[in-house]
Amino acid sequence: MSITTDRPQGPARTLMWAVLVTAVGNGLYLAGVVLFLTRSVGLSGTSVGIGLSIAGLLGLGAGPAVGHLADRIGPRTIYLVTLTAEALATGALVLVRDFAVFVVVATLVGIAEQGSRAVRGALIARVGGRGRARLRGYLRSVTNIGVAVGAAGAGFAIQHDTDAAYSALILADAASFLLAALVITRIPAGCPMPRAPGDHGSHRGRLDLPYLGVTGVYGLLSLQYPVLTVALPLWIVAHTTAPAWLVSPLLLTNTLLVVCLQVRAGRHVDSIADGVTITRRAAALLAGGCVLFGASGAGPTIVACLLLAVAVVVHTLGEIGQAAGEFELSFALAPDHAQGRYQGIFGMGTGVCVAAAPALLGVLCIEWGQPGWILLGGILLAAGLAVGPAARRAQRTAAHSVNA
């Protein structure tokens, strides 16, 4: 990817098409998997939620391990393996007939998904070069487009409300991984990154406490991701006078803003200092959004609707800025020869917080109401302010390791 343009070229462009294909498949999957498991398999909604949570937590550890393989063997090769594994595991969901088998298959899906995510990070670092953070921002926009297209397409199958229609959504998602793997074969295999001088794999990556500190800070900031999908719908229904149908246009607003602004936000984020600065600003916006969400719980319908609309815009601008800073720091603070392992570690930290977010947001935002929104805003703001010290410590450690 050229550092003077936002549009991916060469292998980066090929990766973009592969990501778009899997994003469309994910849109189909996200729209249909719960309906498939509840209406076709016969599991309860609670069982599905518990099973997906178990699978998500068990799959988290796959990221660093598979990422390490990508560093040693090459990210393109391992990405082909993980995409194939995702296809097989996802396709196996149509064979589920009870809760125990569902947990096993969902765990396999989670392991393959987390592995793919880490390897994709290493591949982005490889093909993106110095523009890798901007490439990742571009891919985030593409992902949002693909998921939206897939979710819209799933509506046709859901309208039929048959076992065959739901199974078709799952199998279409599985096929998307195989198609993406076919696209990825067009990227040259390349060679695994050599170890840094004196690196025996023990002093960095496995217990890199400063990098783990940055990971933890961004993990806390990632609590904002489920705000719109988990907390907002429940908040609107239970605590505001706004109509429930408002959820859909608000989520669409978020998607459109991310698609239009994510690349632009990362255009001038070219250093660790830039990443820290945009993250601080993003945290302030996220905190402001939380205050506005809480304020929407009081007042007439028109006021609630206006506050919710403004809150979603402010929150989304914060989300975009946080993502731009996260992309830059997650790459820049990791050694080039271990990007796969480090992206796996970073993803694991974010995954833990995202997995815990629904329960935490339920308590803070829904049970506690306005004070909970203010507390959540304070947590996000504090995390944003902590990015600078955490990043500087990690940068000093990285520099010391290189000079040692």
CATH architecture of the largest domain: Up-down Bundle
| Silhouette | globular
Range of helix content: over 70%
CATH class of the largest domain: Mainly Alpha
Average pLDDT taken over every residue: 88
What is the helix tally? 14
| Unreliable runs | 1-5, 197-205
CATH superfamily of the largest domain: MFS general substrate transporter like domains
Summarize the main sheet.
Answer: none
Estimated share of beta-strand residues: under 5%
Extended strand count: 0
Your description of this structure?
By secondary structure, this protein is mainly α. It has 2 domains: 11-184, MFS general substrate transporter like domains (Growth Hormone, Chain: A); 209-403, Growth Hormone, Chain: A (Up-down Bundle), CATH 1.20.1250.20. The protein is 80% helix and 0% strand. The chain has 14 helices and no strands. Helix 6 packs across helix 12 (301-332).
